[in-house]
User: What shape does this take?
Amino acid sequence: MPETASCASQATSDSRVILQVDHLSKQYKGGFQALDEVNLEIRRGEIFALLGPNGAGKTTLIGVICGLVNATTGHVLVDGHDNVSEFRQARQRIGLVPQELTSEAFSKVWDTVSFSRGLFGKPPNPEHIERVLRSLSLWEKRNNRLITLSGGMKRRVLIAKALSHEPDILFLDEPSAGVDVELRRDMWAVVRGLRDRGVTIILTTHYIEEAEEMADRIGVIRGGKLMLVEDKHTLMSKLGTKVLTLRLVTPLKALPASLSGFDLSLSTDGLSMDYGYRSAPQQDGEDTGSNSSQGGDTQSSIANLLAALAANGIEISDMDTRQSSLEDIFISLVKEQP
Ligand code: ATP
Assistant: This one.
């Protein structure tokens, strides 16, 4: 049964749920509906990626959860605490990593991270700050002014600031926007490390590769509506398609009419054809094998295709298959909506 965006319609006593967003809507002054009845449950210890095109409502949703933006209707529970009536308790459990450092260019790393902890009314805890800085490979730079740090180090300072008050949930807004590939991988390793230490991670991203690489579950938001929330592997096996490319010995001018029952497309040079089919359910990225009925269907449809090609005298020189990526799935999901 697919897990849909309506799964969190009532307050839950499920201790595995750390964040509950319930019928949340936001209409900005002027009437723009940025969030429309969003329901979402985040599980303790997961990495959740919120994907959506520009203007979809991602930042607004994070803003409402963190108490920076007022909701028009609905409510948010952070580890059981209402983020309006119990703001302090709710906010204390959240760390927010924005995209950029705004000021503090001349502050030192240690000072700025310690100061962030103080903002949450927490007593100084140098051991904790040291742990955080060490875990983010910033310990050697603790006495450096921010202005002297590289872009990647500044990003890590933002994470350190967000972790300074020991939050249970960390929001990362576009963690690798504008960073190079190496740094992005570095960032992913840091985020995984945090999750391994029990922090629940919610990230927004435009990089579908990032969601594909990191997330346990994925939410897709568009036009303020949460279109789906799904386990990543389930999403990919449910919505994923495969393409079998067959390379031909002799070029074809057109596909024979007798092959019209197959989802085939001929390349412009006539030397190869693509056959699209639903992929079998997956587990840990691998096909489950021929004992699944869907796998069996797939095999028989390919066998039928090969037999039909042979009957038409079409010889194959080579073949390969490609699994659709999360990006293909995301684009088709976003396109499908009016
Ligand atoms: P991006 O990926 O571009 O950052 P987003 O998914 O984070 O986009 P939001 O920043 O939440 O999207 O914006 C959602 C919509 O709400 C946009 O159309 C935006 O113009 C509008 N919006 C955001 N803030 C305000 C505001 N303060 N007043 C009016 N409209 C706003």
